[in-house]
Amino acid sequence: MRAKFRWIVCLVGVVGLFIAISGYAKNNPKTKEFRVERGMSKQGQACIECHKVETPGLFVDWANSRHAHANISCIDCHQAEEHDLDVSKTHFKQYQRSDSKWGTSDYRVPISAVVTPKDCSRCHPDEVKQYSRSKHANTLEIIWKLDPWLNQGMNTDWERTAGCFYCHGTVLKVDKNGKFDPKTWPNVGVGRLNLDGSLGSCTSCHTRHRFSVMDARKPEACGQCHLGPDHPQIEIFKESKHGDIYDAFKHEYNFDAAPGTWTPGVDFRGPTCASCHMSGAGTVMTTHDVTERLSWETQAPLTIRPSEFKPFPAKTNWKVERNKMKEICKQCHGQTWVDDHYIKLDQVVKEYNENYFKPAKAMLTKLYEKGLLDKSRFFDERLEVEFYELWHHEGRRARMGAAMMAPDYAWWHGFYECKHRFNRFMAEANHLLKTGKKAEKYDNFPGTGGNTTRPYQIFGRKK
Question: How far, in Å, are 150, 155, 263, 367, 380 from residue 374 at the CA level?
Fold first, then answer.
């Protein structure tokens, strides 16, 4: 009887311990495991010693990086499997050299020149997961769904390679000898489709081979792509009070603060692109999904909520995301200041939609229906160009200027130009309606013929 009692007590204790452990596991996140190794494989050492001579600039960048200080070397990022599509076959020749002790078969290892988000996810899983759901990572899908330049072949493949795809990203391809197609490489576009199926390039912002968080926190990193007549965020930032503070005090900013700890008022005085759209502050966590914190799609033809953006509907609630951005703003501004800013932005969006885009779109549709404009190709008639630039150039500048508090872009580069573009568009459109004469076509439109087949790697093969 006593033995039976002891057995019951033991069983109850084990069950209780199991319940306690289960509760602990449920309520406590898994801790990350870090391991620092003092040694390094001979192959890893060979990479370093060879690149120190062959590409000293690359080596010095790596040597000054946090990766190097954590004993993460070339091989940890670039090593591949023999069967991988992006294995560099030409690199194998480096192990057949007679002029370097590191160039022998003893050190042979398959590597890829392309380091992808999938590779980075081995150490940065959360960041890669966040990035994968962002508009950055999926921008190739977005532009193929939106852009008449691509869908109607109104520019050449080389124009796209040097321009559009340099920021948006290419679909990487290799030939039968394992060499990259020069139309797709080199490229570090934010939406690059890699041969391992991953999307994007972390080095778009964290440039090789320093991979510095400091680099990505500065507005100049974003200004590589976010500039020019159609999305001049870097110019808008420079005009704003935020940009003025940055220019005046950036030498005092602590850009090297540890990830997740970069704090307004402590590490920097005025915000940068990253501090508003990505970095954490207050109760808002750091994110690599730049789609978060947005309550309007100010780059779309008609301004809509991110969840209503058909080419890539965000899986977010705009009210939740706006409150996140407001929390960021309130690190430096009072509640009334923040609320009134959004009242102004919402009114600007309404005026652009109702006064400019909707009437122009209705007129364009009417001209197509009456056969006064030819629908077969875009951009080969002046009114098509006028309509496109109304939303893609001036319309974006007006909305983005208001969103980022740059009055010259909201007015002189924005709504002022919208008025002139709109009036020219409407005047010619009404003339065509009155006379019944078809619009003049640009028969000799230069630089056309780009591939109009959507990438099957993203959209699937046609049946």
Answer: 18, 18, 55, 9, 9
